[in-house]
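Supplementary Note 3. Input sequence used for the single-chain structure prediction.
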Amino acid sequence: NSCVREINISQPDIMVSKKANKIYYSGTDSINYNITFTNIGDLPINSLSLSDNLSEYLKLSWEVIYQLGTGKFSIIKTPSNNSLFWTLSGTLLPDQSGSILFKVNVASGSSLPIKNKIIANAVGDKYLANNISEVTTYPLGWDISWNIRTIGDKVWADSNFNGIQNAGEPG
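The predicted structure, written as discrete structure tokens, is reproduced below.
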């Protein structure tokens, strides 16, 4: 004789996505980045911060902040060297989203792939797998055919982002 009881645990859950307007760059091109964040949890988020450490090959050109959805909130930007920090002022309700668009210029002499990563932190968010988003822009002519994924490729939760499936990383 057994008893099964389902327990629903409510919590906020932030999901962040970062996209670039181009895959390849040439010379001192400009790249536009669009960061979108969404509360996919079932509780409001009252404390959210976003951090973006720009590559040494990128320099902030301009920033436009705009909002999506029905949320009434603002974002405070705090630049520090080549790092950008944003803090949510207000409440991001479940299913509400916000977006940040900014433009960078590629530094002269850059000839390597440029990785750019956004990290989101929300108080009470316990599921951190969707709190990081990274985008790579390649020099014009760079071969990215090796980067194509197909069904059957190995996929796991790479919590330390080293590209190796370690013990404790499910997948």
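The CA atoms of residues 53 and 81 lie 9 Å apart. The chain is about 0% helix and 45% strand.
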